[in-house]
């Protein structure tokens, strides 16, 4: 059986996780995390940008609709509007 990745997953893989983690460590990005991990926030922002979404409701609804795909990208659960804001 051939495995096919979504286009979004292929775009996310362009940034290696180690490079992302190194940048967070260098700039102390996870020093005081409040509610949402930086990787999850990055995934949410990259998810909404190509679609041109302009509202938090559309972003969170889109993330909730593709929750199974997000688990493969390292996001445990989709964020809520208040957390993403």
Can you characterise this structure?
The structure is a single chain. The protein is mostly helical and 85 residues long. It contains six helices and no strands. Helix 3 crosses helix 4. The longest helix has 11 residues.
Count the beta strands: 0
* Average pLDDT, all residues: 79
Count of helix runs: 6
SSE string, helix = H, strand = E? Answer: HHHHHH
**Main pleated-sheet profile:** none
Share in helix: 55-70%
**Protein structure class:** mainly alpha
**Spatial shape:** globular
Beta-strand percentage range: under 5%
Task: Provide the fold topology.
Elements: H1 7-12, H2 17-27, H3 38-48, H4 56-65, H5 67-72, H6 81-84
Helix pairs in contact: 3-4
What are the key terms here?
0% strand; 56% helix; 85 residues
